[in-house]
Specification:
four-stranded parallel beta sheet; alpha/beta; single chain; seven-stranded mixed beta sheet; 17 strands; about 35% helix; about 425 residues; 11 helices
Length: about 425
């Protein structure tokens, strides 16, 4: 992973045509409102078990800022990123408030932890500032915890489950099968297991083992021994961040014969597991082999800048800033409340896929295509990044994109 200098400190990215400068901020007095820039807050975890994903998130948003500023900025002004490590829900809440109240950001992009996203979303709602969630999956954020200023370019857990579940059903891996699951023991994991269990049981599968795994766990041998003893037909991951990396690697080392799959996934965590260790069928919001002109352009630019292809987390942060820039241009304003109204009125965006995406007004979830991938045979890998083959797109061609979106079950009571 590429590290910028002192990523755990508060940093400022000032865009200039074709270049960026990352400057450490010492005293609050240095940060002053400037009429010649539009300041955007970027808040996501760079430390802890989600840190590797946060690094890709920063790469994506920085590239977007460079491209926007190289093209002349927004409304004749440069985009300036104020970057923070969200750390945990309490810190995320405090930093979100500081970004808005002290640094006067126009809006906030980021987050991966569902618990921290909830905390940031509450601040966004109270201050009437748009927050685009780029990595938190909990359906509750789109349900009982929804609010008019929290938007989601990231897929909900129910969308991830449906995307991969479509292909698991096609391969007869659910009906009549015995399942064993490992679940991250925090908000995201609990929510993911809830929707995954509902999908599997409704389609004729049965869970014979359910384990909650602490987020700081690195040794999976106790769980792997239980799996060996249980003799399931399928092993399912509801893990997150480097939990998945460690699980995949150790599962391969144990040589267990049971097929594995996952209901939540990030490409970077599989890259981290090493060649030959990744296996199974997994869901993705986006991958670097999506065959569209805009996707290919993004992959080329990212690879040229960072020396490796982009993955799904940087896709979300990159596109979110591009969406904000496009919206401000269309609105002819950088007003946060007008931005929320614009996004909720069905504006469509090129999100590097076959079909445009849009935020639906019911819960501010982006309605879009998703994908499933299958791990590639190590002997067929071209390089360390070539770890899977695409299985296809969900919903399929001609199907309504809303078919994949979370159900409109009435739990989201969007405030006027």
């Amino acid at each position: 992973m590429a590290h910028s200098d002192d990523l755990t400190r508060r940093t400022l990215l000032k865009g200039a045509a074709g270049a960026t400068a990352l400057v450490g901020i010492g005293m609050p007095a240095i940060v002053k409102a400037q009429s010649d820039v539009i300041r955007i807050g970027h808040l996501t975890p760079i430390t802890g078990f989600l840190g590797p994903l946060g690094e890709f998130a920063q790469m994506g948003v920085k590239l977007a800022a460079e491209e926007i500023n190289a093209a002349g900025g927004v409304l004749g002004r440069k985009v300036e990123l104020v970057i923070e490590d969200s750390v945990n829900p309490q810190t995320a809440s405090a930093k979100a408030e500081r970004l808005i109240e002290r640094d006067k950001v126009a809006m906030i992009i980021g987050e991966i932890s569902s618990a921290s996203a909830l905390a940031i979303g509450q601040v966004a709602n109270r201050t009437k500032t748009v927050f685009i969630n780029t990595g938190a999956n909990s359906d509750a954020l789109r349900g009982a915890s929804c609010n008019p200023f929290m938007f989601h370019i990231e897929a909900a857990n129910s969308m991830m489950v449906t995307a991969v579940g479509t292909y698991l059903k096609n391969e007869n891996m659910i009906k009549g099968k015995k399942w064993y699951s490992l679940t991250a023991d925090y908000a995201f994991g609990h929510d993911l297991f809830k929707v995954a269990k509902k999908f599997v049981t409704e389609n004729g599968g049965q869970f014979i083992g359910e384990e909650l795994v602490p987020t700081d766990a690195t040794d999976f041998s106790p769980y792997l021994l239980k799996i060996r003893q249980a003799q399931p037909d399928i092993v399912a991951s509801n893990l997150a961040g480097n939990q998945i990396t460690n699980f995949i690697k150790q599962y391969a080392e144990y040589g267990l014969p049971f097929p594995i799959t996952g209901f939540g996934f990030d490409t970077a965590v599989a890259w981290g597991a090493g060649k030959g260790n990744f296996s199974g069928i997994w869901p993705l919001i986006w991958h670097h082999m999506v065959d569209t002109p805009s996707s290919k352009k993004f992959v080329e630019a990212f690879t040229m800048k960072y020396g490796k292809p982009p993955e799904n987390q940087c896709w979300g942060d990159y596109n979110s800033l591009k969406i904000v820039a496009q919206s401000f241009t269309e609105m002819k304003s950088a007003d946060p409340q007008k931005l929320a109204e614009h996004l909720r009125k069905g504006a469509k965006f090129d999100v590097l896929k076959g079909r445009e995406g849009y935020f639906r007004a019911y819960d501010n979830q982006m309605v879009q295509e998703m994908y499933a991938v299958r791990a590639k045979d190590p002997g067929k890998m071209k390089d360390q990044w070539d770890i899977y083959d695409p299985l296809g797109t969900v919903p399929g061609p001609g199907e309504d994109l809303e078919a994949l979106a979370p159900p409109k079950d009435g739990t989201c009571k969007m405030q006027a």
